[in-house]
Amino acid sequence: xxxxxxxxxxxxxxxxxxxxxxxxxxxxxxxxxxxxxxxxxxxxxxxxxxxxxxxxxxxxxxxxxxxxxxxxxxxxxxxxxxxxxxxxxxxxxxxxxxxxxxxxxxxxxxxxxxxxxxxxxxxxxxxxxxxxxxxxxxxxxxxxxxxxxxxxxxxxxxxxxxxxxxxxxxxxxxxxxxxxxxxxxxxxxxxxxxxxxxxxxxxxxxxxxxxxxxxxxxxxxxxxxxxxxxxxxxxxxxxxxxxxxxxxxxxxxxxxxxxxxxxxxxxxxxxxxxxxxxxxxxxxxxxxxxxxxxxxxxxxxxxxxxxxxxxxxxxxxxxxxxxxxxxxxxxxxxxxxxxxxx
Length: 342
Description:
The chain has a single domain (8-205, 235-262, 295-308), classed as Rossmann fold (3-Layer(aba) Sandwich). The chain has 12 helices and 15 strands. It is globular. The strands form 5 sheets. It has a 7-stranded parallel beta sheet, with helices on both faces. The protein has helices at residues 8-15, 20-28, 43-56, 73-80, 93-97, 119-136, 171-191, 210-220, 236-245, 267-278, 298-304, 311-323, and strands at residues 33-36, 63-67, 84-87, 104-107, 141-147, 154-155, 195-201, 203-204, 224-225, 230-231, 234-235, 255-260, 265-266, 284-285, 291-292. By secondary structure, the chain is α/β, with parallel strands linked by helices. Helix 3 links the parallel strand 1 (33-36) and strand 2 (63-67).
């Protein structure tokens, strides 16, 4: 494991590096892969990982990345990685129907931030679009991203929600995310579409994530609110690997899996760790609540293997990255939010 990540190029290679499990799983699947929402925070690295794993498995497979690609830069990067980018407004039925067929679909489209004031659009993207996608790709297997927020908050000492726990969402985002799951479930059952649902909490790399938010606040001398005192975090490459492996587990009704890190982190302790590593002081505000959004990843580890990168390793990498002034996506996670209003 490297001591430091020093460039965007190195980072993008690392977060798209397939595990042995991904190479083996994709090697057993037939046909092309299309990634809907490949221009977001995780989409580019997942699409690249799918291509790298397919190549390593000796398959001549197309990996297609679909998004609106407003800047064009991500489109160019995907093409350089031999992922085929296609510009498409997925909410336009004609454009969606024009997409190529593929036996394997990864659905990564969703709206979380900016929900307040745009509730109707949130529901359209999170709960209406999945139905259109299911009709278009009724003959495919679909891996659909969701969120552990659909469980609601649970006691910190509980070990986190498991896949069989009943949903208890709070707020428009989590409720519409549960709507997304229910729509996929409906079409999976009614059209016999093999599907997997990936409940993620929370992906991290150097430019984005809960750990990055904490590090940036500590380095800037801003207070870190610990009212939401605990969280799950997972290295983006490990989240991508589990999500891609879930394609092989797709079933009707859908296979559901939590994709989370094995540790429950303390926001206070992580802030203090960053302060020690960066040579500054952590300013803490608030008092830890007894509950938080937490999920249990035991099922996923048993099927797909444990994450390759630990929380401690991420903390050390991110501390050096932030001190050096490394690039940020400028998209805070709002991990402190407890009322479901993002």
